[in-house]
Write a structure and sequence with these properties.
Layout: E1 2-6, H1 10-21, E2 25-29, H2 33-40, H3 51-60, E3 64-67, H4 70-75, E4 79-82, H5 98-108, E5 115-119, H6 127-136, E6 144-148, H7 158-163, E7 167-171, H8 175-191, E8 195-199, H9 201-232, H10 236-244, H11 265-278, H12 284-308, E9 315-319, H13 335-344, E10 348-352, H14 359-362, E11 368-370, H15 373-379, E12 382-385, H16 397-401, E13 407-410, E14 426-429
Parallel strand pairs: 1-2, 1-4, 2-3, 4-5, 5-6, 7-8, 9-10, 9-12, 10-11, 12-13, 13-14
Helix pairs in contact: 1-3, 5-6, 9-11, 9-12, 11-12, 12-13
Bound molecules: uridine-5'-diphosphate-xylopyranose.
Length: about 425
């Protein structure tokens, strides 16, 4: 099939490259010509394990075409995916849909044959209806169908998530015609066990937000229980195991940590409550989740201050600053909330980040970037394990720091407290007895 992806951000690039890997001809369009020329040279603008190799392989095989010529790409394609960003608007809550509608207008000018127009961007319910209206201004209804096909890729796991998804959601108001084309496109993935689910278009749009809000709720629930565990001498992992083995609950997304972040959960939970309020519905639970997650950085900071006792001029070293492992993404990372609070208290911040220096941290005067764990550990009074990178999981801290007096606050519970018993290193973690 000939496919076009408009937008070579995270979702567009990963999906476009992987559809080309399945044998389709894929036009990846972006109005950022610098990005396009880099992609043609095999330079991938995001950190995603395995992606660069797939870009090179499929580009060299001629299955993927990087271009800024949207008209030509649309005209040559049977299916056009809209995969542009939908960041939070100035109101701080709703999704900004300007990009989506602009792309819809451009597609509208280039409908030279019947096409499926598929929104992959995360868009609030009703967006497909608006896209359809835009297309109808210039085209007959038999020239296109507007479909919702939301994305469930996790950063760092995107290739696996694309190849082996739990489900493929197709939202259409014309299911007979649309589902056979989309089923053919996804056939290699369906064959491997991905459930193919066809629903109304608005339902598909809501499924995406509902999934992210539910997962955010699950994480927030376990984070709040972790607070209770700390005060009652219980280990949060026992709770995660004990409740997660109930198939109705499920064991995933029950890891307590510093608060959820990233490009999706914070943005999508807010956009969902905004959409609901437009329909006069109050999503009290989701509102509480947002509030609880936002206040978690205060809680973590107060624990750090407790550990430090006298924070002024104490050296705090962060192991990892991104919002989770296997990504270079800093968007809504809890480190961005905790670091300024610690600076205000007079702490001296440094970090080691496997994906290198983070520009966004350069704005804080005095924040140091170390190029290896050993130097950071030897420099710091308190090490904060902020991100769960594999390379942080089996460090011999004693050997590394030659038994210096060190404190560790493990926000991802990568270690067992027993390992530090009777050692010079003092170890603190999340959702386990917290005795300072
Ligand atoms: C998420 C969704 O999982 C994905 O389906 C959607 O398409 C985009 O948003 P992503 O943001 O890449 O993916 O990361 P994810 O692995 O879901 O983690 C999100 C946040 O939750 C991270 O900050 C992570 O550290 C945190 N998290 C996750 C926990 O604190 N505990 C957990 O058990 C799981």
């Amino acid at each position: 099939m000939n496919i076009c992806f408009v937008g070579t951000g995270y979702v567009g690039l990963v999906s476009g490259v992987l559809f080309s890997d399945l044998g389709n001809t894929v036009y990846c369009v972006d109005n950022n010509s610098e990005k396009i020329s880099k992609l043609k040279q095999g330079i991938v603008p995001i950190y995603e394990p395995g992606l660069e190799e797939l870009v090179k392989k499929n580009y060299n095989a001629g299955r993927i075409i990087f271009t800024s010529n949207l008209s030509e790409a649309v005209r040559k394609s049977d299916i056009v995916f809209i995969a542009v960003g939908t960041p939070t608007s100035k109101d701080g809550l709703s999704a900004d849909l300007h990009g989506v509608y602009e792309v819809a207008k451009s597609i509208s000018n280039n409908l030279n044959s019947y096409k499926l127009i598929v929104t992959k961007s995360t868009v609030p319910l009703g967006t497909g209806d608006e896209v359809e209206k835009i297309l109808l201004r210039k085209n007959k209804s038999n020239m296109f169908d507007v479909v919702s096909n939301p994305e469930f890729l996790r950063e760092g796991e995107a290739i696996r998530d694309f190849k082996y998804p739990d489900r493929i959601i197709i939202g259409t108001n014309n299911s007979k015609k649309v589902s056979s084309v989309m089923e053919a496109l996804y056939q290699p993935i369906i064959k491997k066990g991905g459930k193919f689910i066809v629903v109304q278009r608005r339902a598909a749009e809501l499924i995406k937000y509902a999934s992210n809000a539910f997962l955010a709720t699950k994480i927030t629930f376990i984070n709040e229980l972790a607070n209770l565990c700390e005060k009652t001498g219980i280990n949060i992992e026992d709770i995660s195991l004990g409740i997660g083995t109930d198939a109705r609950i499920g064991s995933r997304f029950l890891r307590a940590g510093p608060a959820y972040g990233g490009s999706c959960f914070p943005k999508d939970t807010k956009a969902l409550t905004k959409t609901a309020s437009k329909f006069d519905v109050s999503l009290n639970l989701v509102n509480s989740v947002i509030k609880s997650n936002e206040s978690r950085s205060d809680l973590i900071t107060s624990k750090i201050l407790k550990i430090l006792k006298k924070p002024k001029n104490k050296k705090i070293g962060f192991l990892g600053v991104t919002f989770k492992a296997n990504t270079d993404d800093m968007r809504d990372s809890s480190s961005l909330k905790i670091i300024p609070k610690l600076i205000k208290k007079g702490c001296l911040i440094s970090y080691y980040e496997p994906t290198g220096n983070k520009k966004i941290l350069d704005k804080y005067k005095g924040v140091k970037n170390f190029s290896n764990i050993k130097d950071l550990a030897n420099y710091s009074d308190l090490l904060i394990i902020h991100t769960e990178w594999d390379e942080f999981k089996s460090i011999n801290f004693e050997k590394l720091t030659q038994n210096k007096k060190l404190q560790i606050f493990d926000l991802r519970n990568l270690y067992q407290p027993d390992a530090f018993l009777n050692k010079k290193i003092k170890y603190y973690s999340i959702g386990r007895p917290f005795n300072v």
